[in-house]
């Protein structure tokens, strides 16, 4: 065989191999596209459970980031020491001398030594006593009003066989401790009060008519505040999806439970609201008639930490991280300078320019950076509002912390059944969280509220 024939044979063989490789490459490319599509579907499904809106309580412990214990210790070195409640000596209310006539081991006679007696402090708990009190209510005739009058039964709601203390205790356990009505009835049974779940529900619901005035005053204080944080989370009502809306200041917090998350609902809830809101990027807050808003930096940072797509090259990944570190450092410097020089329009404009410069330093374009840049530029003048207006918080973490209590209640009670119970819970949890922010006892806070309402009637 000549050299030419051998080369032609080799060329034919290579063409066959090349054809087979092209076919194999095409099949592999199709498989890769299927795998990428499947991965993106799984990633999108995973983002339903872990994204920038996911509360910390919804994540299992193994998915949470580790905490640097050494750094936490260093940060607490300069903090003032807290009161040692565990080893604090309580005030002595009563002294009791113990005596012994016979030896507890052998039964022999004992004599008292001249040494000083040992001292031991015991904190004694006495369970409350259940007392059935029958009030004799005389009837009087008023010559001025020309009608029959009678004295009111003290510390009791009208037409209720349980006194006000029982109603307040049920509200404290249901709203404050997030217990179910079954557990509340079980606990009251331990105290000697036999009560059913339905009775506990009716007693707790009976407080609603006495909380309306204080609830309205609470909303008025929040709406008149110069700065507040807002957020929302899901809630189940009668088997359907509802939403809990929250607005909170430093000392007040108010909740609404509505059946919608729409812009129309937001406008109805926050009608007449003044001041500056710190919110996330949900569009409903854009349509409540406010020109000045502060966007949540924590939400934006969490969104940046969880890119929705894959990166094509390592250079794109590093550039994405570089821009993220640059913007996060810019946010840190803004907070530090705010403490040093105070709020001003010049300070806000300075950092808005620096934010745009940081975004323009991008080297590689990809879907992840486009996603986060579109989000930032959509609210391009709302990121540094806190640098101009005093009291405005750069994050809505305060609102998210306020929603945590409701989320725990949602896990325990699952849902509300009637519209009245839904509104009743919104009222009572608003008063409970407000009493916590104001460092007041909820039991006393609620009793004062009900007493004031009873005096007006």
Main beta-sheet annotation: 5 strands, mixed
Whole-number mean pLDDT: 86
Major sheet strand order: 5-4-3-6-7
Which assembly state applies to the chains in this document? single chain
Helix/strand-derived class?
A: alpha/beta
- Silhouette: elongated
Please tell me how large the radius of gyration is.
Answer: 33 Å
Unreliable segments of 5+ consecutive residues: none
Q: What's the total helix number?
A: 14
Helix proportion range: 40-55%
Order of helices and strands: HHEEHHHHEEEHEEHHHHHHH
Q: Give the DSSP E fraction (strand runs of 2 or more residues).
A: 5-15%
Describe what this molecule looks like in 3D.
This protein has 457 residues and is α/β, with parallel strands linked by helices. It has a domain at 220-399. Helix content is 48%, strand content 9%. The strands form 2 sheets. A 5-stranded mixed β-sheet has the order 5-4-3-6-7. The protein has a two-stranded antiparallel sheet with strand order 1-2. A hairpin with a 2-residue loop joins strand 3 and strand 4.
